[in-house]
Design goal:
Radius of gyration: 19 Å
Strand content: under 5%
Shape: elongated
Number of domains: 2
Helix content: over 70%
Largest sheet: 3 strands, antiparallel
Number of strands: 3
Order of helices and strands: HHEHHEEHHHHHHH
Length: 233
């Protein structure tokens, strides 16, 4: 907890956390097509559905409005903004570009202990995939990449990438029966390349992971019928 948060009443901190959780839930629903473009998000209905009061929903919608995911229409409420295929491609392009930069630096700087930690996270991921524990899959995958990105020593850039990861709906990947095994295999190759300090291979593997993720999410949204016409693609 930062110094500013520590001066706030505990109730205020909890409310802020709850607002973040609601924003995360709504963001995921928008990114997966569960909340369709032009849908109005009603405060009372959403609060009842999520089991919270109206206040954190209102604050969450303010956050999403700042991200361009909803817009406020006077006298009507918050409307979900159209998410296009280009938007998805742009998000993954940005993430991939940052991740490749971090990967190149991390390959030179990563310590043996950090590589061992990556092995442990990948073992956890493999076990979670075998058990189809979707929450553990998401945690192990996040832990793997956070450890890897921090090893670059470029802390601000690593945090910025983590911030953009909120646009990756983990459930799309964690529930995909083919993604998990592919991710574990890719991590094994990545770890081997890190031990050899093979920058080109590490960067290529990272780039491939984001290309694969973009392809899977776009396919998910295609199947969900998010883009109904050529103008929405």
């Amino acid at each position: 907890m930062n110094a500013l948060a520590s001066t706030r009443p505990s109730g205020a901190v909890r409310r802020e956390q709850l607002s973040d959780e609601v924003a995360s839930r709504l963001r995921t629903e928008i990114m997966t097509g569960a909340l369709r473009p032009d849908t109005f998000i009603r405060l009372d209905e959403t609060a009842a559905r999520l089991g919270v009061s109206i206040t954190p929903v209102r604050e969450a919608l303010r956050t999403l409005r700042g991200e361009g995911m909803v817009e406020l229409e006077p006298h009507r409420g918050h409307r979900v903004v159209l998410l296009t295929r280009t938007d998805i491609e742009d998000i993954f392009w940005l993430q991939s570009t940052i991740a490749q930069e971090l990967a190149a630096t991390a390959t030179h700087r990563i310590a043996d202990g950090d590589i061992d930690e990556l092995v442990r996270f990948n073992d956890r991921l493999a076990d979670a995939v075998d058990r189809q524990n979707h929450e553990e899959i998401a945690r192990a995958e996040l832990g793997f990449h956070w450890t890897f990105n921090q090893a670059s020593g470029r802390v601000k850039l690593a945090w910025f990438l983590l911030h953009t990861a909120r646009y990756l709906p983990s459930q799309v990947f964690a529930t995909d029966p083919t993604w998990g095994n592919a991710a574990v295999a890719s991590h094994v190759e990545l770890i081997d390349a890190l031990r050899r300090r093979d920058v080109d291979t590490v960067v290529a593997l990272v780039r491939g992971q984001f290309t694969d993720a973009a392809t899977r999410l776009i396919a998910w949204l295609d199947q969900a019928g998010l883009w109904g016409s050529a103008s929405e693609r």
